[in-house]
Amino acid sequence: MRVSIAFGVGVVVTAIIVVAGSWGYAAAAGWDAAAAVFLALTWWRVGPMDGRTTRAHATREDATQRTTDIILGAASVASLASVVVLLVRASTEGGVARIATIALGLATIVLSWFVVHTVFALRYARQYYAPPVGGIDFENSADDPREDPAYSDFAYVSFVLGMTYQVSDTNISSHAIRMSVLRQSMLSYLFGTFVLAAAVNLFVTLGT
């Protein structure tokens, strides 16, 4: 449902910008709107969940969720192409128009990064609670060593991996989860490389 709502918002925003005659901004702005809505709806729903609620929610996720994850991940990576278009456009603009174009490009990078790692956080929860339960060894508190991990714990794993390209204080003991970690590490490296290239281009653009 949240993906459908986000998609609808993105389509509406894209259409409005196209009608307004700003074709060069339509794809990035539409994606940004869809990504922002997806992130807001997702974390508003799963962020407050404790371990028990997370287990129940993760095990009843829609069977088509894997396809949805692939689409979201592909869209996030593809959205980087629109950033290239925006940076090229910014180099030919000046004043407020240049600043607005650069800001839109930066927003696209940030939102795409958050979408990718949110998708993997949700995926880790589903993989962890799929039979046989486990695959990520969390350091639970001494007060309750059997405490089920919540979505916030899986977010910790995913976003730390996204920022450092490695797991932190959690051990991975599941082959399926290791494969997800590998894919996420590769995407994280791609984003890191792109962000560095975009930053260099940004400084060059602002200096001209």
From TrEMBL:
InterPro entries with a match to the protein in the record: DUF1345
Alphabetical keyword list: Membrane, Transmembrane, Transmembrane helix
Pfam families: DUF1345
Annotated transmembrane regions: 5-23, 29-46, 67-87, 99-122, 187-206
Protein name: DUF1345 domain-containing protein
Source organism of this protein record: Rhodococcus rhodnii
